[in-house]
UniProtKB/TrEMBL annotation:
One of its GO terms (molecular function) is cyclic-guanylate-specific phosphodiesterase activity. The chain holds residues 275 to 573 of 573 of the full protein. It comes from Alicyclobacillus tolerans. It comes from the Bacteria. Residues 30-286 form the EAL domain. This is PAS domain S-box-containing protein.
Length: 299
């Protein structure tokens, strides 16, 4: 309605306002999207998906939580809404929801199977680290659930540079607590070599853009393979574990096995799924572990 009003104002010459219609559309669309996200928060429409993470022998060892939201026209990607919730400060409430839900879900897994507990890997925006309530909230969750800090990994995803004293201090506190720190999307954006020294992460997750170009039969990309091979070597020399993200093919998996990657994540071995589905995967993987394991493996 306000767009029409502006058009009218302009065409009737009564106003000096002269916004380009495209600009107006952008503002309205952004406002609409913001309202949609705000409502989704209020109505608790966000939920978590879990994607399994395997060791190099395809044993299930961890899961990554991924936020999901179904909008009026279908699923909305976190790649689309996370930057908006970060800009508007909603990330703090949403981040608390993610932590709380993940702890709750994983507690039920832990109660069922204490022998080989999985690692819970949670995405955490760099902005969340700046919030004074972040650390106390995490402490509260640890006090309320049976999950020990050593089983939790925070994947630092970033849309801003992670280098302020506030960030580094918080990361140190988290590590002192025993929580593992992973650098997500390693090798892209800001996630560079200086991080390895400043943050001393436990894990790096090699970005999918590198994994996608591994072991391509039709057009091999040797330079890309050299880069991934050196990331793996560098990480090993620094005592940092490696996860390959976005593994989709058997040749990629074989390549990573041959080059000493520690952990594998991707559609080849498991897609993100609702928690109830993930529970079944966990039960199945515990029941086939041992003698059956090698038969169940892809390789
Ligand atoms: P990410 O943390 O790097 O997560 C990996 C993304 O790759 C996920 O996309 C996952 O669904 C997708 N993926 C996994 N395996 C494959 C594969 O084999 N092939 C392809 N093509 N894609 C694969 P998703 O769920 O859309 O999430 C996108 C990004 O949104 C995440 O990237 C993360 O940066 C952010 N995100 C998701 N959930 C949260 C959250 O709870 N908090 C924060 N701060 N960020 C989140
Ligand atoms: Mg991640
Ligand atoms: Mg990633
Ligand atoms: Mg990403």
């Amino acid at each position: 309605r306000s767009l029409t009003a502006l058009h009218l104002a302009r065409s009737s010459g009564k106003s000096q306002l002269c916004y380009h219609p495209q600009m107006v559309m952008d503002v309205l669309r952004r406002q609409h999207f913001y309202n949609l996200l705000r409502d989704a928060m209020d109505e608790k429409q966000f939920y978590l998906a879990y994607q399994p993470i395997f060791d190099i022998n395809q044993k299930l060892v961890a899961a990554e939580t991924l936020l999901r939201l179904n909008g009026p026209n279908g699923a909305i990607s976190p790649a689309e809404f996370i930057p908006v919730v970060e800009r508007t400060g909603m990330i703090h409430d949403l981040g608390e929801y993610v932590l709380q839900q993940a702890f709750q879900d994983f507690s039920s897994l832990y109660r069922q199977n204490l022998e080989s507990p999985l690692i819970l890997s949670i995405n955490c925006s760099v902005h969340q680290l700046e919030h004074p309530k972040f650390y106390p909230y995490l402490l509260k969750l640890f006090s309320q659930h049976i999950i020990p800090p050593s089983q939790v990994k925070l994947e630092l995803t970033e849309t801003v540079m992670l280098n302020s004293a506030v960030h580094l201090e918080m990361i140190k506190k988290l590590k002192d607590l025993g929580v593992m720190i992973a650098i997500d999307d390693f090798g892209t954006g800001y996630a560079s070599f200086t991080y390895l020294l400043d943050i001393r992460p436990d894990v790096i997750k090699i970005d999918q853009s590198f994994i996608r170009k591994l072991a391509q039969v039709d057009k091999p990309d040797r330079d890309n393979e050299r880069i991934v091979a050196s990331m793996l070597t560098l990480a090993r020399q620094l005592g940092i574990s490696t996860v390959a993200e976005g593994v989709e093919t058997v040749p990629q998996l074989q390549w990573l096995q041959q080059h000493g990657c520690d952990y594998i994540q991707g559609y080849l071995l498991g897609k993100p799924m609702p928690f109830v589905e993930f529970e079944k995967v966990v039960k199945y993987s515990t029941s086939v572990s041992g003698s059956m394991e090698s038969q169940e493996n892809i390789l």
